[in-house]
Task: structure prediction
Amino acid sequence: MESLIGVGLVFAGAAIAAALGFSGSAIGMGHAGQAAAGVLSEKPHLFGKMLLMQALPGSQGIYGLVGAFLILNFAGILGGDGSVAIDAGLGLQYLMAGLPIGIAGYFSGMFQGIVAASGISMIAKDETNMGRAIVLSVMVETWAIFGVLISFILLISIAG
Amino acid sequence: MSIVPMKKIQLAVHRSAVEPVLQTVQQFGVVEFREQVSVADKNNLTGVDISFPYQHTLPRLQQAISFLEGYRQKPSLWRMLRDGTTYDLSEVQVAQHLENLEVIEPVIEDIELLHHQLTQVQEESRTLRESIAQFKAWEELPMTLAELETARTKTYLLISNQASSELALNEAVAARAEEMELAESIHVTVVSHNRCAITALKSEAVTAALEALSKQVMAEMQTLPAATKNTMADAISDCEAALQTTSEKEATLHAQAENAAKEHLRDLQIKSDVLRWQHDRYAVLANGLSTSEVVVLEGWANARLLPDLEQALQTKDPLSAISVIELDENEEPPVEIENNRLVQPFEVVTRLYGLPGHKDLDPTAFLAGFFFLFFGLSLTDVGYGVFLMIAAAFILFVFKVSDTVRVFGKLLFFMGLASALVGLLFGGYLGIDPSMLPEWLRALQQFDPIGDPLPVFYLALALGVVQVMFGIVLKIVSEARNGRLLGGVLDQGPWLFLFVVLIAYGASSQGLWATAYTTQFLYLIYLGLGAIVITSGRHGKNLFEMVQKSLLSLYDSIGYFSDILSYSRLLALGLATTALAFAVNLIAEIVYDAVPYVGIVFAGLVLVIGHTFTLAVNTLGAFIHSARLQFVEFFGKFISGTGRLFRPFAREKSYVSITPDK
Result:
């Protein structure tokens, strides 16, 4: 029973990391996609640039996926022999390790999408603004990356 | 393999030779004309007073093509891909079309007439259909059409806007008429729940009152189309007979349009391109200056190809001369990049971002290897890689495509090759369990991204470190090219040094290399940090600013750090490929077991559709994220600005492909 709760908590940690990251990206890409569709109705030749701008807030989902895999791998559930025993305390630690990437991914994905949408307007006015628009948008992503880092450090600390 | 050098030029042409000279310049496509000419003394110069002779014909021609394109026989998708959508023409044939432009005028007139007739007939048909619908709506009215308006009375037809109302329209009308004291003056005839007719004496006052009443009961007054017959049924038959006639006329006109498309569309499309090119030549002239004898144009030229143009002009049109002129202060030339055949396909990635500034390095050659590797790591499957290579082979060797698509086809081939090669190392074979593979294939597998993701994670970060360091080196090279070697070394050198000693320290402290020198490497790290602080402060105007800049420079380390962590996406994208391919196979297996007899058919469908979808989604993701790593994490290190794309004056081909003269 103790072990089942522990494994459940590990799953919860992986699920939070992935699901919040995916949700943040979905919201962010939605914002950017909406702006991109508006621009493309007037300037269809900008499709490549618009696609790239819309993809930028997708990173948080990817980081969430990385985080989830790392949690499952560090806990010995993925790639193990199936005989892993995790008590509730250890499981809770893995759950906590999923929070930084999950929460940071959710909010940074959402806000990166808003900045990307504004960047799309910049590009629509002048195509040479592409670099600046990317940089502004990626600044928000920094915090999701730090979320990955803290989650990773927590995982290493648990394993250690 | 660099940014193409540009020269600012002036082209002087004798007025009599303007057309042939501009034709030659347009054929070469190496000059971009500017909108103004910089001449010191403009007193004797005026604008060029030569106008395009087909100013009104070109839009009419394009309208005619647009009309006929709806009637051309559509080739199958395969044939369209194989034969392309353009006509192959030699320069001689193009010249013949140019000389023969007047023949299109009567053809355009015929097509315009046909279009006009067809529009008229279609309008008649539409009106008749509406009339039939209106007559049919009032077919139940127990009155003849003549009775609707007599010498003394008029019948108003009302239709309710509230079809779902519980109260029938005639009841609502009767109730309101009672309130308005109109009940004695009108007669209401029921047609249906939401339709009724009101007959009243002809009077302006009654008409106004009934209009107000219809608004109050939320109904609309309808007027039937004019008809010569007495009954609704006769009017409907009349309209149907007329509709039959217009439909026959319409069919005849459609057939004529199909014939016209078969006979003239090709010729009109070719002439449209030829005319547009001529229009562009005259448009260029509008920006020039002229004396009574000479026209002067100004622009930018590709310096590598300019001598070829000069030679061609001297041979064909000696009444012209090109002179190279000085750039104005702070003037920046447009940018174009040029690479060898191996690297050229990766220009697609560079162009997606936008071209670098004219003083920057062309990043294409430097990103090519990284992009190849990153794409492979993001789509780690031999099967998908082979499929991409086959698709690329069709684009390159079977289909007739534009030059732009051909370049993309080459990139697609490289992308497929990368996936196949990395897939071998990752054991990715359309999601098949590696234990089911032959021993020699299993022996090639070096990474197991799902079972043991950490080595792939560290590999991704290591590649990030390599690319970021390479970007720093390129920044120094770029600064050196612009005469700022010392500044480049002082700004970037300490960071590069810090990266190297951090790697050495990591390897040493983990017992991988030079284990006896861990402490020394630690001191070197402090030295590197100190060098960053000292060199960064030198741009400050006073001591306070110097200290401020020195301390802020360490903040850049956060940027480098987040850049490197961003490469972890390579692990996630590779994992997604493997996981999705595996999931498709699992679903197919479940379907195979669950459906009796025809399970194999459904399982096959699941495999084909599922893997096609997975390939499409993962290829797009792998491309975008491999490109993003170049744009954000790599370009940011050594590209300072975005250049303005060089747009040479050339023939934009919509319908024609130029082939060599036989």
User: Anything to note?
Assistant: The radius of gyration of chain B is 38 Å. Chain B has a mean pLDDT of 90. Chain B touches chain A at residues 352-354, 448, 450-454, 457, 558-559, 561-562, 565-566, 568-569, 571-573, 575-576, 621, 624-625, 627-628, 631-632, 635-636, 639, 641-644 (CB under 8 Å). Chain B has 21 helices and 14 strands.
